[in-house]
Amino acid sequence: MGYQSVSENSHLLSRIAAGDGHGENSSYFDGWKDYDSNPFHPVSNPGGVIQMGLAENLLCLDLIKEWIKEHPEASICTEEGLNYFEAVANFQDYHGLPSFRQALARFMGKARGGRVSFNPDSIVMSGGGTGAQETLAFCLADPGDAFLVPTPYYPAFDRDFCWRTGVRLLPINCFSSNNFKLTKAALESAYETARKNNIRVKGVLMTNPSNPLGTTMDRDTLKTLLTFVNQKRIHLVCDEVFSGSVFNQADFLSVCELLDEEPSYDKSLIHIAYSLSKDLGLPGFRVGVIYSYNDTVVKCARRMSSFGLVSSQTQHLLSHMLNDDDFTSKYLAENKRRLHTRHEEFTSGLEKFGIKCLPSTAGLFIWMDLRQFLKENTENAELKLWRVIIDDVKLNISPGSSFRCTEPGWFRVCFANMDDATMHVALKRIGDFADKVKDETTQLDDATMHVALKRIGDFADKVKDETTQLQQKKRFNKKLRLSFCRINDGGITQHLMSPHLQSPRSPLVKASH
Amino acid sequence: MVAKVYKPCIPLSAIATSSTHGEDSPYFAGWRAYDEDPYDATTNPSGVIQMGLAENQVSFDLLEKYLEEHQEVSKLVNGIGGFRENALFQDYHGLNSFRKAMASFMEEIRGGKVKFDSNRIVLTAGATAANELLSFIIANPGDALLVPTPYYPGFDRDLRWRTGVNIIPVNCNSSNKFQITKQALEEAYAKAKKADLQVKGLLMTNPSNPLGTAMTRPVLEEILNFISSKNMHLISDEIYSGSVFSSEEFISIAEILEESGYADAQRVHIVYSLSKDLGLPGFRVGAIYSYNDAVVTTARRMSSFTLVSSQTQKMLSPMLSDVNFTKNYIKTNRERLKRRYDYVVEKLRECGIECLHGNAGLFCWMNLKPLLEEATTDGELKLWETILKDLKLDISPGSSCHCTEPGWFRVCFANMSIETLDVALSRFTSFMEKRRKT
Fold first, then answer.
1. Which ipTM score applies to this complex?
2. Where do runs of H (alpha helix) occur along A125-183?
3. Nearest to residue B358, comparing CAs of B249, B274, B217, B218?
4. For residue A237, which of A156, A294, A309 has the smallest C-alpha distance?
5. CB burial class (10 A; 0-12, 13-18, 19+) of residue A454?
6. Is B327 a residue of the active site?
7. What is the model's pLDDT at position A448?
8. Cross-chain residue pair A78–B305, CB shorter than 8 Å
9. Is B347 a catalytic residue?
């Protein structure tokens, strides 16, 4: 039902509410809408859009399901678990169930190969990883302050870290020339740029393993980073949400390990954000974690967790599950194995079509290099290509520009949110597309050249002015379907956002439930 | 290992170092005293009895019975079909079935006198998050919200801490049973204007915490007129709506809006939660119901920071949609709360303590003005300390609820067994007897 409208001012909302810091205005979501309006289904809609823009891990949910079935006492609504109902339903202490914190500490330690030990008393709950990021921003920075973040980065950080907090994120640019590794020079440059603009830098925000790159940070880079934040006396927020999703024999080196090794680093600067949404494939359960080595931050974050506590029903279930050592060991090992297998299959499939990916050892996605298919080395060209991939190839993948990648032509492609059959369909579509584009590229180039020559010739006598030439190009380009815009916000350009900013819908979840 | 002394690092945020989290209030100090020395009938019979926490434990058996008799719920939550979809479901619209269930439950509570559109429900992890969210949405940092006193101490944190919004109290007193008057509203508004603060809305709790009273129709209409004339929003926190002892006595703002054809409804937002009526604070189920599309859309986006666990939504949907169950639950819960309330008030009266005449909630508003050495906040806090240290009862001083009249205390009675309640009441009785002798 609609309600009578009153005068303009009556429902005047706050600046935060009226602005677009939520990030969803970007026409990037055309891709998501395309998926939502035409979702792939092997039987009922084999020609639909395959969702490869959602970093979910479906590969091991069967293990979790099996555990839950075998442990009815961990669920408060079963006959076996009902006697816990009252105590659990009543429990709203923001410290969280002690057994839950212990279970999380154990699990996080295990994901790091037992090389790090976490103190359950420093574990704070949050509303998913989303809530963890925002809470840390509220604790560490004032409105107008900035955190530096290496590019490319998870687009929803702009919402999570900045929207309601008023904190800014400034890029530390990384490049493919060294596989997008973070360098000391890049750190210093970003810091200096902020300083020149009178922006107070409060810290660095990084994701390790990286989203969207799927790479893990090496020891030297971590040391560079730790030295940098120590020298500048600023905070380091490490998002380690994919720490249990490292495969390919490579061991994950968490920043926590280096802290133990090197006492000269000030631990009170280090804060970890974690969640069970990726490693355990349980985004619906909203389990976020803040782990800080700074007691004041722990205390403050804990108070703030009142705004996003984990349901005690969920705490109860997961404390049983994650305290089950046999299960967690088996799960982590099997998760690695299945991710590795899927990663191998997918990347070798792409290789056959001459498509390369950034070498990666973690995460639920690959960073695909489609630079060879770009008509020009520009963001516009990347977005044009992306549009074709959605409309013609019917794959929703995420363009690098939405991750603020400095170089056009890279795409993040998720592979763990579908079954094998669907992955093969996706690969085939990519292969067909790759062949088609290779053929067309030559022809198109010729055609474009002829059109351009003719037009230049026709107007050669009349056109001397550069401005008119630009107008001509604009008229030509009007025919291309471009629906993206760049908003300049006082020098910081707001790029297009990835689908994560809109409420993500898994391909396996029907919209009306 | 030798502790290393580092150069001072960049400070934490102003929000982190402020005390607007409100935990230094005696409201929470009492909780800490309880935590350190909790009463237990067998192991610690002289411990502190917690009467400062508004929880509803009187009707758990009904919920447990439902789950026991409906094992299909556990199959739904953990069963073969549907687990994967549920585990992955992080859509901020929430499960359709759950939103519908919430709308249905809210309608039941209001005796079917209003209809709720489930598409206007936004889910949040508890009413704590809902109130903060609305504050972010309707006010800018530095703006003000009017809140009638006495009010729930947590509002100081929920409405102000991270939002930077101010609260201007609308002062109410016992001369008219703490009802909100037009004069009080105008005074508060004028005070805000004088301080150059833009008032963006009024937040009221109906039924009231800590008073335990439901608002009357004339007052509700007065408030609607006021907020319309001043061009502001109205947030009606109705989390105790299912705890009004008699359904005829609760009038939701939704009813007033419906009766007036929803004129100006776009200003109004209702907050609800399952923490009080259903006694499920652990599950973190809160909701915003807004008649304003822009608020619904924005609130939904913001709820990403505070979604309700999908397995909790799944578990509660069948129960809340089951009208046979909810009708019986609401009726029984009301009766049990009323019985407890009447019992407590009668026992207190017998030993010489009067309470405000209430008709709702999980607490009574106790008048200890005659016991004050001085009619000041200090006097009240002294008495509070005595009650905590000597009677070992954690009750909440009115000043922590911003009551302008010293001597009132909120006493919760629904969060313990009847045996524990009797022990608490006997401590009051002994205390009053001793006082009479001296």
1. 0.93
2. 128-140, 157
3. B249
4. A294
5. exposed
6. no
7. 66
8. no
9. no
